[in-house]
Structures are given as structure tokens and as C-alpha cells.
Design a protein that fits this description.
The complex is a heterotrimer of chains A (329), B (75) and C (512).
Chain A lengths: L3 H36 L6 H11 L7 E4 L2 H6 L2 H8 L3 E3 L7 H14 L4 E5 L9 H16 L9 H6 L38 H16 L3 E6 L8 H14 L2 E4 L24 H19 L11 H22 L1
Helix pairs in contact in A: 4-10, 4-11, 5-8
Chain B lengths: L1 H10 L19 H15 L10 H4 L2 H13 L1
Helix pairs in contact in B: 1-2
Chain C lengths: L5 H17 L5 H17 L3 H24 L2 H38 L18 H17 L8 H8 L13 H10 L5 H34 L6 H32 L17 H7 L2 H16 L2 H13 L1 H25 L3 H19 L1 H11 L6 H23 L3 H13 L18 H22 L5 H5 L3 H18 L17
Helix pairs in contact in C: 1-2, 2-6, 3-4, 3-5, 3-6, 4-5, 6-7, 8-9, 8-18, 8-20, 9-16, 9-17, 11-13, 12-13, 13-14, 14-16, 16-17
The chains are: A alpha/beta (329), B mainly alpha (75), C mainly alpha (512).
Chain lengths: 329, 75, 512
């Protein structure tokens, strides 16, 4: 007969054992799902795809990494930058990417890549949400990071039902062929409002991102791609001020002078939010020249190791040029 | 008590009033039954059953109803 | 922050549990009260002041009632109660219904050609939780008035009764005698309570995340674009909404009651297998039970013993006979219940219609009572005849689904238009021509919804037959019990509708 104290002790051990087994199960299945996802990224939906695909890039092959929300992968085309200046880059943007996710993405990317420059589209800086939303994102992203089963939990749909999430992209860039013009011209930048501020919760994660880039010897470049819907003078000035304070570079492509040469009657996907293929081409040409000049990125064209790029280029031209021709007609 | 049983049988004669111990708990009397019973009791015994009296403990059995009526009559 | 979110489950609740445990027993109520206000503040900001003011007011009215009671002044007590209830309802009315009233007055003014006189609508944030704690406060006042409970001297205890964080968003609506003492006692956490509480929470997440949050897509698509759908699809949507609402609301209640249990507080149950009901009346004894009990205790019975009813009973017996006396009496007592029930859900005509819908159906059930008896006598069937009960359940389902169709419809007109479309163009082929796959749900989603419903159905059946309860689970052999825990955890993790490709769905009843 065990006395009461002994019994309590056994109970305590038993309860701990429950959590140990639970942890093992979760870690084990996380590892399994991560492995499966690495094998076949058709298992995953668009938002998770880029996280896997960046890991599958040849090690140390990239000179520039692009992160950000949907603005980034709609406006910046690595293949175009390759054609222009031989820049090897990849877009790890995700729709509605939160800074917490940007951080995770970079963390994963830096494991296999050592880019000279990280281009960050500034859209996420103004996705202002309440405190409890911020806490929620932080917790969720922590869960996703340490226990990938949360991130990849949906794979049963593919495994059991054969659902595939096939999606064509070119080094993370999504070709978008639709055209719905933005009709108010370049005037959106002249409306000077009061300076918008960068919220402390945003600053918190920006500091982590800045530190992470520094640690990995990558220069951070903030870019605001043309988007009347997302940018105005108040915002861009706030980003500029923030960049100055933190000693990071900022390239604003929204300007009444229109440095990129955006034609708002043709280059816009959805009334001033995203750019379509035509707009993306203009942005990518401009950005390629800018990166080449300011960051001294090597020209890899013709190198044996980058043969796959040349191959992809052909396919890219066929698809994109067609779309652009349609749009600009 | 006799009077009470007469009323109860008048309300519904298919119920074995004398031996049922869970009139409310077993849902033999529903809330509509309760309110028409209350109306009858009020009139016959010249009492005023308040809303606060309408709780299962007071209506679960004939004995309970009887006890409640007695108590209210004394007040 | 809401009960199904990571912030609540992995941060707020654990922190409160820890804080509760390390604080000395005497001060634990402070932890719970602070937690309640913090939680309320997280979604209602400054409206937390209204909650605090309500608590103080309720506490004061209780003490006042008791003081006057000692003087034996019955009439004055009644006036104090009326005053208390009036103030609470006025606050609720202002915060929730002012704009509805103004809009409808403006509509009338425009209709009679005097739109220049239109009143201004004010932007008031939709108050969350107020409908629930206001009912608890009214119940407390009435209980003190009736002498069911003594007035509470300690303000903190009343405040905690109204502001216990698991209940504050969606109920259950408790009576003071049900929860106040347990909340106040500050009993230490017990591992049995924690274990049973967590399995209840997991079960709630199962219902909410696997089933309800998927059905959300179909329901939203059809109800928000109802012009594009008719017939069979509308029926599917109405059924889906009833299921979504059940899974979501009862699932949330599982989380809430589970959370309460972790602190050793037994909150009243709100659901009891409503889809096993054989009549509309039974449905309302099994669905949102605490609201039904509240209305019965504080509206139905008081109205049915009011002087007016007494007069009617006397008059009726003389002039119209027993049957009609009972029927009209029931109608008089039922009408306010269902008017308030409809209004309580919110300032929309379709909620009022929903209330009236059940008023008519429940009254019909009372009216048909003698007919039913005759039917039983003639056919030899009874309440225990199997096939007959299947029919009765089916009939009740139709009543439920039709009711929820109007309840969810964007406007009352939309509700009628959807209802009519069922008969206009039934179009059954749309069930298999791929229409259902274009609503944000794929074959995998439908399969998991159906599988989930089957699991919930089996569990419901076992509970109905008293073959499954938390105590029984606690008594299971260890491997089986642990297996059950792990299975539930992994079901929620794998099949939950969260993360990429899904939307976080807000709690429906928090809006009421």
C-alpha cells in the first residue's frame, strides 16, 4: 500500500510524462510535415510556398532578397532584374505579410543565403492593428516557427484528397495580367497631410529585422513601390525620417516626378493598389539599375552556375511579354 | 388536501398527482401548466402566489404544493 | 481578445491561472476581477467604465432594497426595483438601440414627407457583453427583491459576479446563487479541475475551429449574395447556418465553462443536445438555456401572476371557457418574452421577427395540445413511440432551420426573399454541379465538416443517454484517457480552420 505522499509523487511524474509525450508528438510531427513540405511545395498554399521555395534555392546563390506583402511580389520581378543587370534575387513576399513573418522569413533565408542586400517593401509598416492583434500575430508566428505543424497543418488536404496548390511564379514574382486603371494621376503624392507616425509595435520588430540583417552582413534597403492606395506624402516622409534615424537606405518610387515612369492608365492592377505585369516591368528595370549602382551587385549572366536562370528567362519572356503587350495595347 | 386534488385533476386528469414526486423535474408540468395551476390555486384558496414562489421545490409534488398553499394562507 | 484566440488560450488564461494560484486565498477575487476588467477592456476599451458603474449601481440597489424591506414597505421596494431595472435597461437601450430607434423614426419622417426633421444618428461602438451582464444584474436585483438571496454587502463580490471574464462576452447568464460563492471563495487550483477544464476547452475548439469556421464561408457567401441563390442551395445555407451557430456558440460555451471549471467555478450549462428536441418548446429548453431560464424566471412567471392576468383568469373562466383562458393567458405571458428575446439579440427587424416567429409557434403548440391528446388516444401512439418521435424531431428541425434563416438574413426583406426562393426555383442540380465548391470550401473541407458533425452527433447521443460525461472520462483507464486527449489536440491542430487560406472568424454571439 502506497501512502498518500507517494501517490501524489507518482501523480506528479505522470502528469509531467503526459506533457513530455505531447511535446515529442508535436515536435515529431512538425519535423515530418516540414520534411514533406520540402519535398513537394505543391502541398502548400501560396503564403507558405515562398517559405519553402527560398530554402530550395541553391546555397549562396542570391545577391538580393526581397520581402514584404503583396505589393512586393506584384511589383518586383527578379527575372527582369536578371535580364537587365544579371542580378540574382528572390522575392519572399507573402500576401499581407506581417513584420513578425518578415522576420521569420529572413531568419530562414539567412540559413542558406548570404545576400548583399535585403530589399524590404514598406507596405507592412503601415498595417496598423490594435495591441491585441499584435500580440496575437507574435504568438502565432512563434508557434509557427518553433512548431511547424501549425504552419503546415493543412497538408492533409493534399495527402488525403490530392488537392494541389499549383501556382506559377518566377523567383517569387507573380505575373498579373489584369488592368483596372487608377484615374487620379500622380497627384496623390502632392497631398501633404500631417506626418504619419511609425507605431512602437512596428518599431519593435523593425529593430529586430535591422539587427538580423546587420548580423548577416546584409544591407537593408526600404522601398516603397508605386501605389496610390498605400502611399501618400505623409507616409513616405515618415518612412524617410525613420530610415534616417536608423541609418538605413530608403528608396521611394512614389513621387510626382514619377521616376519609374508609371502610366496609371495602364500599369495598374486594381485602381491604385497593386501594379500589374507592365508596371512591374518598369519598377524592376529601375530597381535593377539602382541596386547595381548602389550595391555593386555582380553580373552573373553567362555563368555556368546560373544556367537555370537563362532557361527560366525564355519561359518568362514568353509569358510576360505577351501579357505586357495585351496590357499596353 | 382534497380540494387541492380536485383542482389538480381538473387541470389534467391523466397525471397520477398523488404519487408523482418530480412534477417539474420530470417535465410532467410544463410552464404553461404551472401558470394555469397557479391561477386556479390563487382563486380557490384566496392566496397570491408570487413569481418568486414559482420554483421547482414548490411544485414538484402534491405535498410541496400543499405546503406552499398552507404557508401562504397563514401569512 | 476572444475565447478561441491564441492570445486567450496561451497567454491570458495561463497568466490568470498562475496569478490566481500565487496570490493568497483571501485576495484571489481581486485577481479574477482585475482579469475580468482587463479582458473586457481588450475589446470594449472605455466601456469597461459602464460595467464598473453597473456593478456599483446594482450593489447599491440591493442594499437599498434590503434596508426598505426591514421597514416592511412593500410598495417602496417595488418602486426601487422598477427604478433599478429601468436604469439598467435605459443604459442598455441607449448603447444598443438608440440608432435603431432614430433610423426608424427618420424612415417614418421621410415616409410622411418631413425628412427635414430627421434626427441625427450617433456613432456608438457596438457594445460587447453588455446584453449578458445587464440580465445578470437585473436577475440579482429581482432575487434580492423577492428575498431569494440576501443583498450582498461587499461591492467586490457583486462586481465579480457581473465581471467574471469567461462569461463576460457570451454568457452563460448565471444567477447570483449559482456562481457568486464559488467565485468568491478563492479555492486553490486542483489538477482534476484543470484536466477536466482543458478537455472541455479542447472539445469547444473542435466544434468551433473544425466545423463552424469552415461553414462560415458557405453561409457568408449565400446570405450575403442571396440574390444569386435559390431553392436547394438556400436550404443548405440555412441548415449550415444553424449548424455553424450551434457549433460556434456551444463550442464557445465549452471553452467558457471549461475555463470556469479550471478555477473550480461551475457555470450553468447553456446547451443540452438541442437538435434532439421534439418540439419548439423543448428546443428552447435545450438551446441557449440560461437565456430561456432567465426569461421564464424574470418575465414569464412575473407576467403570469400579475394583477392583469389574475383579472383575465377570472373573466376568462366565466366567459370563454378553460381552453381559451389558458391559451390567451399563455399568449399574454409569452408575448413579452419573445418580443424581448428578439430585441435582446439586437436592433434589427429580423430579430424581432425571429422572436415573433417563436411566439406564434409556441402558442400553436399550446393550442394543439388537446388535438395531440386525441391523436394519441386514437392511434395508440404516445410520447415514446419511436417513428412518431423521429417525425417530431424532423418537424422541429424544419422549425429551427426556418427560424435561423430569418435570424441570419441580412435584412428581414432578404429573409423573406430567401424563404420564397426555396419554393420558386428548387434547382436541386446545383447541389452537385459544382456550385458548392465555389464557396471557398473544397471537397476536403466538406468531408471534414461532415466527419466532424458525425463525431459531435455521436458524442451528443452518448451524452443524451448519460453514457458520457467529464467524470466518466476522468474515470477511464490512463492509456484511453491520454489517447483521447492527444486525439483531440491533434484533431484541432491538423483540421482546425486557421492559418494560411483561412480567415479568423469572430464569435457570433459576442455581437448580441
Amino acid at each position: 500500500m502506497l501512502d498518500f505522499k507517494e501517490k501524489m509523487k507518482i501523480k506528479k511524474y505522470r502528469n509531467s510524462l503526459f506533457f513530455v509525450i505531447l511535446a515529442l508528438l508535436i515536435i515529431g510531427s512538425s519535423a515530418g510535415l516540414s520534411y514533406l513540405s520540402m519535398q513537394d511545395d505543391h502541398l502548400l498554399q501560396s503564403r507558405n510556398k515562398s517559405m519553402i521555395r527560398i530554402q530550395k534555392q541553391r546555397e549562396d546563390s542570391l545577391d538580393a532578397l526581397v520581402v514584404g506583402d503583396s505589393l512586393s511580389y506584384s511589383a518586383i520581378s527578379p527575372m527582369k532584374m536578371w535580364e537587365e543587370k544579371g542580378i540574382a534575387s528572390y522575392v519572399c513576399g507573402q500576401s499581407g505579410q506581417k513584420l513578425q513573418e518578415t522576420y521569420s522569413m529572413l531568419e530562414i533565408a539567412f540559413k542558406t543565403q548570404h545576400p548583399k542586400v535585403v530589399v524590404m517593401e514598406t507596405g507592412p509598416l503601415f498595417r496598423v492593428r490594435g495591441k491585441s492583434e499584435e500580440i496575437k500575430s507574435t504568438l502565432s508566428e512563434m508557434g509557427n516557427r518553433y512548431f511547424p505543424i501549425f504552419r503546415y497543418h493543412d497538408v492533409w488536404k493534399t495527402l488525403l484528397f490530392g488537392k494541389k496548390y499549383a501556382e506559377q511564379d518566377f523567383e517569387g514574382y507573380l505575373v498579373r495580367g489584369t488592368k483596372i486603371p487608377y484615374t487620379h494621376g500622380d497627384t496623390y503624392m502632392s497631398k501633404a497631410k500631417t506626418l504619419e507616425e511609425i507605431k512602437p509595435s512596428i518599431d519593435l520588430y523593425m529593430q529586430k529585422i535591422i539587427a538580423l540583417c546587420k548580423q548577416n552582413d546584409a544591407k537593408l534597403l526600404l522601398v516603397s513601390v508605386p501605389s496610390p492606395h498605400n502611399y501618400n506624402t505623409a507616409r513616405c516622409n515618415a518612412i524617410a525620417a525613420y530610415a534616417r534615424e536608423n541609418g538605413i537606405a530608403y528608396l521611394n518610387l512614389n513621387d510626382t516626378a514619377n521616376p519609374v515612369g508609371i502610366d496609371w492608365s495602364k500599369d495598374c492592377l486594381d485602381k491604385g493598389d497593386h501594379l500589374n505585369a507592365s508596371g512591374a516591368e518598369r519598377v524592376s528595370i529601375y530597381l535593377a539599375a539602382y541596386l547595381k549602382e548602389n550595391y555593386d551587385l555582380p553580373d552573373h549572366r553567362g555563368e555556368e552556375a546560373y544556367a537555370s536562370y537563362t532557361q527560366m528567362e525564355k519561359q518568362y519572356d514568353r509569358i510576360v511579354n505577351e501579357k505586357i503587350k495585351e496590357i499596353r495595347e | 388536501m382534497e380540494e387541492l386534488l380536485t383542482i389538480l385533476n381538473d387541470v389534467d386528469d391523466s397525471i397520477d398527482w398523488e404519487h408523482e414526486e418530480g412534477l417539474i423535474d420530470n417535465r410532467i408540468l410544463d410552464s404553461f401548466g404551472v401558470i394555469s395551476l397557479v391561477a386556479e390555486l390563487d382563486e380557490t384558496f384566496d392566496i397570491e402566489i408570487e413569481a418568486s414562489e414559482i420554483i421547482p421545490q414548490n411544485f414538484n409534488s402534491v405535498q410541496a404544493i400543499y405546503a406552499m398553499v398552507k404557508r401562504l394562507q397563514e401569512n | 481578445m476572444a475565447y478561441h484566440e491564441v492570445t486567450y488560450l496561451f497567454l491570458f488564461l495561463p497568466l490568470v491561472l498562475i496569478a490566481y494560484q500565487i496570490v493568497p486565498q483571501k485576495r484571489r477575487w481581486c485577481v479574477l476581477l482585475l482579469a475580468g476588467y482587463a479582458f473586457f477592456w481588450s475589446f470594449s476599451k472605455s466601456l469597461v467604465l459602464v460595467l464598473m458603474a453597473t456593478s456599483m449601481f446594482t450593489h447599491y440597489i440591493g442594499l437599498w432594497l434590503e434596508r426598505v424591506k426591514e421597514d416592511g414597505d412593500k410598495k417602496k421596494q417595488k418602486w426601487i426595483l422598477f427604478f433599478g431595472v429601468f436604469v439598467l435597461l435605459a443604459v442598455l437601450g441607449y448603447l444598443k438601440y438608440a440608432n435603431f430607434f432614430v433610423e426608424n423614426v427618420n424612415g417614418l419622417l421621410t415616409a410622411v414627407g418631413k425628412s427635414g426633421m430627421a434626427l441625427e444618428t450617433k456613432k456608438i461602438a457596438v457594445p460587447i457583453g453588455i446584453s449578458f451582464y445587464t440580465l445578470q444584474a437585473i436577475g440579482y436585483m429581482a432575487d434580492v427583491y423577492w428575498g431569494k438571496i440576501p443583498a450582498e454587502r461587499h461591492l467586490g463580490k457583486v462586481a465579480l459576479f457581473l465581471g467574471f471574464f469567461p462569461q463576460i462576452m457570451e454568457g452563460p447568464i448565471a444567477m447570483y446563487s449559482q456562481t457568486a460563492d464559488a467565485l468568491w471563495s478563492g479555492e486553490s487550483l486542483k489538477s482534476e479541475n484543470l484536466a477536466q477544464g482543458s478537455i472541455r476547452i479542447l472539445w469547444g475548439l473542435f466544434k468551433k475551429m473544425i466545423i463552424a469556421d469552415r461553414l462560415y464561408y458557405l453561409v457568408t457567401e449565400v446570405f450575403d449574395h442571396y440574390e444569386n441563390y435559390s431553392g436547394a442551395i438556400v436550404i443548405v445555407a440555412a441548415v449550415s447556418y444553424a449548424v455553424q451557430l450551434y457549433m460556434e456558440f456551444s463550442g464557445c460555451m465549452d471553452i467558457v465553462i471549461g475555463s470556469g471549471q479550471m478555477f473550480g467555478v461551475r457555470l450553468p450549462e447553456n446547451f443540452n443536445q438541442p437538435f434532439a428536441s421534439k418540439s419548439a418548446a423543448e428546443f428552447w429548453r435545450r438551446w441557449h438555456m440560461t437565456l430561456g431560464v432567465w426569461f421564464k424566471t424574470y418575465v414569464f412567471y412575473p407576467v403570469s401572476v400579475s394583477p392583469f392576468m389574475r383579472k383575465w383568469n377570472k373573466f376568462g373562466k366565466k366567459h370563454v371557457g378553460k381552453y381559451m383562458t389558458k391559451l390567451v393567458g399563455s399568449a399574454i405571458a409569452l408575448f413579452p418574452v419573445w418580443l424581448f428575446n428578439g430585441l435582446w439579440h439586437g436592433p434589427q427587424w429580423n430579430y424581432i421577427f425571429y422572436g415573433m416567429y417563436y411566439f406564434v409557434i409556441l402558442l400553436l403548440e399550446v393550442a394543439c395540445e388537446p388535438l395531440k391528446e386525441k391523436f394519441y388516444a386514437k392511434t395508440g401512439t404516445s410520447e415514446t413511440t419511436g417513428w412518431w418521435n423521429v417525425l417530431r424531431i424532423a418537424k422541429t428541425w424544419i422549425i429551427i432551420f426556418t427560424g435561423e434563416l430569418f435570424f441570419r438574413a441580412n435584412t428581414l426583406t432578404a429573409g423573406f426573399s430567401m424563404f420564397a426562393s426555396i419554393f420558386r426555383g428548387f434547382a436541386p442540380e446545383r447541389l452537385w454541379d459544382g456550385t458548392l465548391l465555389r464557396m471557398g470550401l473544397d471537397l476536403a473541407d466538406y468531408s471534414i465538416i461532415i466527419a466532424g458533425c458525425i463525431v459531435v452527433g455521436i458524442v451528443g447521443h452518448l451524452r443524451e443517454k448519460k453514457k458520457l460525461s467529464l467524470d466518466q472520462i476522468a474515470g477511464m483507464r490512463l492509456p484511453a484517457r491520454w489517447g483521447l486527449y492527444y486525439a483531440l489536440i491533434f484533431a484541432v491542430i491538423l483540421f482546425g480552420a486557421y492559418g494560411v487560406g483561412y480567415q479568423q472568424v469572430d464569435l457570433i454571439y459576442a455581437g448580441f
